[in-house]
């Protein structure tokens, strides 16, 4: 492909509609497949929490060990149930 054609294809791939297609594959609920999407994030968050990563502080001009944690998520109630593993419907919901 030529440079202009390739940049046009990349531009199309980065459009919101193209990105959402990767996550929304069908009208059915993907609750049994959600781990496939979340596992890379979980692995990286575990690494950042347990081991940390060496990071450079420009103001102090030295390296330090940075650790990170996911403190909040913003989602609807069904997604909350899927992420937390708790039931959100019925008598116990």
From TrEMBL:
Which InterPro entries does the entry link to? Answer: Transposase_21
What's the name of the protein? Uncharacterized protein
Which species is the source of this protein? Mucuna pruriens (Velvet bean)
């Amino acid at each position: 492909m030529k440079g202009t054609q390739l940049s046009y294809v990349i531009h199309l791939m980065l459009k919101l509609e193209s990105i959402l297609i990767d996550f929304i594959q069908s009208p059915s609920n993907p609750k049994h497949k959600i781990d496939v999407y979340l596992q890379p994030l979980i692995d990286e968050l575990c690494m950042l929490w347990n081991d940390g990563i060496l990071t450079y502080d420009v103001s102090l001009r030295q390296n330090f060990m940075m650790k990170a944690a996911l403190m909040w998520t913003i989602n609807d109630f069904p997604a909350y149930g899927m992420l937390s593993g708790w039931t959100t419907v019925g008598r116990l919901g």
